[in-house]
């Protein structure tokens, strides 16, 4: 029996796609999705965008630009699951449940949380100033 590989990645919809997105995420993901033994799931991370951007028009424009980039790069939507994060209500529901039961120790070990704390300490801020679970829990 052949083991199937599951691939999951998304791009936060806060900016215009650039060469780094293409070279670092989009192209490798498209190539990986062509493997017959891969189940690929690619998403437009518009919930993640809410952490960084409070301009709904910018998020919408970015979502369209990023989707167009995936498709122009050769993403075969007949081979992969390609979706907008906000179209699946179970995502925030599950996130809420997990944040309710996740211990603070897990947050302390998250690289995004540690980086945010270090940045605050360097600038003389309270270590946890401006840090939310949303900023860190989505990046485990």
Backbone CA Rg: 17 Å
Q: Counting H and I runs of at least 4 residues, what is the number of helices? A: 7
The neighbouring-strand order within the major sheet is: 1-2-3
Beta-strand residue fraction? 5-15%
Low-pLDDT residue intervals, each spanning 5 or more residues: none
SSE class: alpha/beta
Distance between the termini: 31 Å
Biggest beta sheet attributes: 3 strands, parallel
Mean pLDDT: 88
* Overall helicity: 40-55%
Shape summary: globular
Total beta-strand segments: 3
Q: How do the SSEs run, as a string of H and E?
A: EHEHHEHHHH
Structure in words:
With 140 residues, the protein is α/β, with parallel strands linked by helices. It contains seven helices and three strands, in the order E-H-E-H-H-E-H-H-H-H. It has a three-stranded parallel sheet. The longest helix has 17 residues, at 56-72. It is globular and about 50 Å long. The protein starts with a strand and ends with a helix. 18% of the residues are buried. The model has no long low-confidence stretch (mean pLDDT 88).
């Amino acid at each position: 029996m052949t083991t199937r590989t599951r691939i999951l990645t998304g791009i936060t919809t806060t900016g215009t796609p650039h060469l780094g997105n293409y070279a670092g995420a989009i192209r490798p993901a498209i190539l990986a999705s062509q493997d017959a033994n891969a189940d690929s799931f690619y998403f437009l991370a518009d919930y993640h965008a809410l952490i960084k951007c409070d301009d709904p028009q910018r998020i919408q424009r970015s979502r369209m630009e990023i989707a167009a980039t995936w498709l122009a790069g050769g993403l075969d939507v007949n081979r992969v699951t390609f979706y907008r994060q906000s179209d699946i209500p179970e995502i925030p529901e599950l996130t809420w449940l997990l944040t309710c039961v996740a211990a603070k120790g897990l947050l302390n070990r998250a690289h995004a949380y540690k980086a945010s704390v270090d940045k605050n300490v360097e600038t003389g801020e309270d270590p946890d100033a401006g840090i939310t679970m949303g900023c860190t829990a989505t990046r485990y």
